[in-house]
Write a structure and sequence with these properties.
- This protein is of the alpha+beta class.
- The chain has 2 domains: 1-45 and 61-121 and 144-262 and 454-501, FAD/NAD(P)-binding domain; 266-450, no CATH class.
- Helices cover 30% and strands 22% of the residues.
- The protein is built from 13 helices and 22 strands.
- The chain has an 8-stranded mixed beta sheet with strand order 4-13-14-17-12-20-18-19.
- A hairpin with a 4-residue loop joins strand 8 (222-227) and strand 9.
- Helix 1 packs parallel to helix 13.
- The radius of gyration is 22 Å and the shape is globular.
Length: 501
């Protein structure tokens, strides 16, 4: 489908799950002119040298975090179908609505090739593990999982691209520089101090407004976007879905347009790697156990995230900071003898500090300085105050899957509070799954999850700039494939209902 010159009915910024699912919803309406702009490469051209060498070479545009499919394209490909995890979309839609959205999203993923098998759907097995976890002070969150696997994620996302190619206009390798407001851009505005004291962003009402809330149209209306090559594309509706990689850009644009922001928490921790036999007993049934723990010493929340049974530890680049991550394949031929998962400590900063992303990046950069990107340490060495050496690493029973990680000492990179919290949770997990807290358990650092500042949004995820929607991880609304996809549906359906011509 082609547009009339550079004029469209809807422009989508970002080709991750939020942007793709918005496009899929809009493509179902015949005659609607839709343009999707993606900063990175098409999925067929995304290549990461670090996946072969283990060492980030700092490409100008990171193919792991940017490109068609978003940062999740080369992840483990887990579709987590519970309502309690994956973001904050429940702040904007009620529980029944969120369940329906998740069901719709699950059906679309399956339509394009996601597997039928669903882990954790048997209630009695969840209750069995929840009871065992509770004895150790752990809470197991109900979260059925459909596992695509790294290789199948790529094929599913490629199928979505192939379907959309004949129905909308898609431009990859095309970054958006700015969003155009039709009634003139307001002068730069200081972020509202009141927002930093709030525990979380609140959706504003379309009816009577409370103090500090806005309504769509208060700040004019959107008119289009300008790309970095100077091209202007016009549209009365813009759905901003830039992903975590584009979160800083979206926050800067929001401030320029006068949209209030609230800082989300930042999660900082490590990637844990253990022999798969230690965790098989639970991952074979639940695939990804979502465990929450309140640490004994500081009473901070610690959680497991992105469990990858028989997977690999890998890296990803966020500008000048390299962090650790993990993934696993569906094909048994590519499975390893280890399981890895993240342990993350959630921190929400209040007045006067308001830069959680900058804080997380600074911790990552410190580890990068000490370890030529990623540090790895045996848990036993951390407990005993020793730096892990190459010799100590060789003596351990866990062979690292991230070969380029530098043996070192995480206590020089992570704050004591975080390390104490992480060790507390590993002790609790070891009581549930003996071996998790073993001497040779590997800790890679650091892992940071950047949750973007949340824009002021209504229940349709529309900003106070009429026609401008902000969705997905980059808008601070979600933190995973399923809720990001659902957020794209919310905005696209609202745009259609509002009469996108």
């Amino acid at each position: 489908m082609t547009s009339k010159g550079n004029s469209y009915d809807v422009i989508i910024v970002g080709g991750g799950p939020a942007g793709i699912f918005a496009a899929l919803e809009l493509a179902a309406k015949p005659g609607l002119r839709v343009l999707l702009l993606e900063k990175g490469a098409d999925i067929s051209r995304r290549r990461c040298p670090a996946r072969d060498t283990g060492m980030c070479v700092h490409c100008p545009t990171c193919d792991i975090t940017t490109g068609w499919g978003g940062a999740g394209a080369f992840s483990d490909g887990k579709l987590t179908l519970g309502t309690e995890v994956g973001g904050w979309l429940g702040d904007y839609v009620d529980n029944d609505g969120l369940r329906r959205l998740i069901s719709d999203v699950d059906g679309i993923w399956r339509q394009f090739g996601a597997p039928d098998r669903l882990y954790g759907e048997t209630g009695d097995r969840h209750e069995h593990w929840a009871d065992l976890a509770a004895r150790q002070g752990l809470r197991l969150v109900r979260s059925p999982v459909r596992h695509l696997g790294t290789e199948r994620s790529v094929s599913v996302l490629a199928a979505m691209k192939s379907y959309l190619d004949t129905r909308i206009d898609i431009r990859t390798d095309c970054a958006v520089a700015s969003i155009i407001a039709a009634d003139g851009t307001p002068p730069p505005r200081k972020r509202a101090a009141a927002g930093h004291a709030q525990p979380m962003a609140k959706p504003y009402s379309k009816g009577p407004r409370a103090a500090g809330e806005g309504a769509a149209g208060d700040l004019g209306r959107v008119a289009g976007v300008v790309t970095t090559d100077g091209t202007t594309y016009e549209a009365p509706v813009v759905i901003a879905a830039p992903g975590r990689e584009g979160s800083a850009w979206l926050s800067a644009e929001a401030e320029r347009l006068g949209i209030d922001l609230v800082s989300n928490a930042v999660d900082i921790g490590v990637r844990v790697e253990v022999p798969a036999v230690v965790t098989d007993i639970i991952t074979d049934e639940l695939y990804e156990p979502k465990l929450l723990y309140t640490s004994r010493h500081f009473e901070d929340q610690v959680r497991t995230f992105c469990v990858n049974p028989r997977g690999e530890v890998c890296t990803e680049c966020w500008g000048d900071a390299v962090t650790v991550n993990g993934h696993s394949y569906a094909d048994s031929a590519n499975k390893t003898s280890n399981t890895n998962f993240a342990l993350l400590v959630s921190t929400r900063f209040t007045v006067p500090f308001k830069e959680p992303l900058a804080y997380g990046k600074s911790v990552a950069r410190l580890a990068n300085m000490l370890g030529k990107d990623i540090l790895v340490q045996r848990l036993g060495d951390l407990r005993n105050g020793h730096r892990t050496t190459a010799e100590r690493l060789r003596r351990g029973i866990v062979e690292p899957t991230l070969k380029a990680a530098t043996p070192g000492d995480l206590s020089f990179a992570l704050p004591y509070r975080h390390l104490r919290n992480l060790v507390d949770m590993l002790d609790a997990m070891d009581a549930l799954l003996p071996g998790v807290g073993g001497r040779d358990t590997l800790l890679y650092g650091v892992e940071v999850k950047f949750y973007s500042s949340r824009l002021t949004l209504d229940s349709d995820l529309q900003t106070p700039v009429k026609g401008l929607y902000a969705v997905g991880d980059g808008a601070g609304v979600t933190r995973g494939l399923v809720q990001a996809s659902a957020a794209g549906l919310v905005a696209a359906r609202a745009a259609r209902a509002a009469g996108a011509r």
